[in-house]
Amino acid sequence: MSRKFPIGLQDFAKIREDGFVYVDKTARIHELLTGSGGVFFLSRPRRFGKSLLCSTLGAIFEARRELFAGLAIDSLEWGWKKHPVIKIDLNPGNYDLGVDTLYTRINTALELCAKKYGVPFKGENISDRFIWLLTNLSNTFGEKVAVIIDEYDKPLLSTIDNPEVHKKIRSVLKGFYGVLKSYDEYLKFVFLTGVTKFAQVSIFSDLNNLKDISMDPRYNDLCGITQEELERDFAEEIGQVILNKKLDRQTYLDELKHFYNGYRFSENLLTVYNPFGLLNHFDLNGTFESYWYNTATPTFLVKLIEDQKIDILNLEQMSLVKSDFKRFDAENMEAVPVLYQSGYLTIVNYDEEFDEFFLDYPNEEVRTSFSKSLMEHYIHAPETDLRALSRTLPKALIQGDADGAVHAIKSFLAGVPYDIQIEDEKYYQTVFHLIFRMLGLSCRSEVRLAAGRIDGLVETKNYVYCFEFKLNKSAGEALAQIDSKDYLLPWQGNGKKLFKVGVNFLYKDRNINEWKVVVG
Question: I want to staple 341 with a disulfide (CB 3.0 to 4.6 A). Which of 34, 111, 196, 519 is the partner?
Fold first, then answer.
């Protein structure tokens, strides 16, 4: 009988009581709880296990030790003293409808908590009710209170495109979270999760004891699944997939890592898998799909990239200093930090001397899927045309048919609406780049060499294709540039067949008008 995976299940007690698979994070949680106290904030992308972490913390402070039998924390020194817990989950709710949705969500959570512990529920507004509940729980039970707020920023993120509602919600949350500063004496532990850190919310400016552990190397794996945890806790599923699909173990593990791993949250080299993707992969007998990506449409992020004229060709070469990660201003958003916080980019390298972080897509799931979203936004390509291209282009490149590859792209571009074409060579270079990335092909654009920059470089197992693009010129001029700058010199003698591909776009035709291929 196959094991049960907690896909979409965030209740720690249910997971443990009903025998679902659980990756033990309690040693790291214990490290967090036994360190210096304060108010903790953890930022992670959506569906990364934040809600399960909150539920686990709640069970610890409620001293439900029976749920932790056999887990790491059960054998570590911990008092298991019972504390009242106020838990608020702001993820549900259509906040774009107005501030009343926020009032209802918070009020319901507070009222349910009051009923659970049998204390009165009073107050003129949600801040007053929060104060009343906090103080009465502490006084009634003689213990300080643990406050856990999951997805604190969901109401703010949901209303970014609705400034009027956004400002009202921000004002309400500012007063509500301000309670945590004024009533610190009643608090045992405070933990907030979210995707990002809004500069205008008082909790990040008013609380002197706030500890943002989002980029703390000690807690890189507080959420997410490490390679060690994957091979230890999913050995049964790994073995079954290998057996069913007749795969080599290391080949399969490498493919898993390439497709789902790669998220890194500090200068520490440790990377993790998104749990949602892995659990779905094993639940569906080892099928590789974009499970995490397909749970949301990044329309807002794509628009942000376009509005700020972010160079799509260089998304994989962006860099930030640590202070760039710290603030999120709804009135002055920077696309790159938001892409990182949302999980579409991640840390791939760190320069200690300059405290600079270099970013890239975390894995193949995000790389191919996000490229497709960008493609759909930039050129509005019909889905049928994209499917046709996905059949013809990779096959041509894998078989060493450079002419067939360019012809496939020309046929595809013929279906692109005329009204969104741009009289700019960079536009067509970008379209090529997104096409290759969307199809999961190994493509690099603007590859820097001593002699200049290669417009596009595509590698397969047996072939290397060097593309040079021109607009309203000629394919011969493109080839001449490849030769004059000796672009393919670094790949000479690597055992692969080399192709030089000169491509010219004619603006009046909105397409490729000629191309030439020379074996290099």
Answer: 196
Question: pLDDT at position 204, please?
Answer: 65
Write the CA distances from 323 to 313, 326, 328, 337, integer angstroms.
25, 5, 11, 10
Question: What does the alpha-carbon distance between residue 455 and residue 505 come to, in Å, rounded to a whole number?
Answer: 14
Model confidence pTM above 0.85: yes
Separation between Cα atoms, residue 249 and residue 306, nearest integer Å? 42
CB 31 within 8 A of CB 328: no
CA distance 158 to 154: 6
| Structure tokens, 418 | 């005329």
In this predicted model, what pLDDT tens digit does every residue of 115-124 receive, in sequence order?
Answer: 999 999 999 9
Q: Specify the 3-state DSSP secondary structure of 25.
A: coil
Closest CA to 212 of 204, 224, 222, 202: 204
Residue type, 38: G
Cβ atoms of 292 and 274 within 8 Å: the answer is yes
Kindly provide the b/e burial profile for residues 45-70, where b requires at least 16 CB atoms within 10 angstroms of the residue's own CB.
bbbbbbbbbbbbbbbbbbeeeebbee
Taking the chain (520 residues) in runs of 10, the rounded mean pLDDT of each run is: 88 98 97 88 95 98 98 96 97 92 96 96 94 97 97 90 90 88 92 81 65 94 98 97 95 97 96 97 95 89 87 86 74 85 95 94 95 84 83 96 96 74 75 90 89 92 96 95 95 95 90 93
- Amino acid 91 reads N
Strands 39-43 and 346-351: unpaired
Strand (E) positions, 80-209? 85-89, 145-150, 187-194
Using H for helix, E for strand and C for coil, what is the string for 137-161?
HHHHHCCCEEEEEECCCHHHHCCCC
pLDDT value, residue 378:
78
Residue 515 CA: distances (Å) to CA of 43, 68, 443, 468: 48, 65, 19, 10
Give φ, ψ of 415 to 5 degrees: -95, 0
Residues 6+ positions from 142 with CB-CB distance below 8 Å: none
DSSP 319-370: EEEGGGGT-B-TTS--HHHHHHHHTSSEEEEEETTTTEEEEE-SSHHHHHHH
CA–CA gap between residue 279 and residue 277 (Å, rounded)? 6
Please tell me whether residue 55 adopts helix, strand or coil conformation: helix
Rounded Cα distance between 110 and 313, Å, is 48
The rounded Cα 430 to chain-centroid distance in angstroms is 23
Asked whether 17 and 71 are in contact (CB, 8 A), the reply is: no
Amino acid 427: pLDDT: 82
Q: Where are the alpha helices (DSSP H) in 354-508?
A: 364-379, 383-398, 402-413, 425-438, 475-484
Phi, psi of 146 (to 5 degrees): -95, 125
Helix (H) or strand (E) holding 509: none
pLDDT at 1: 47
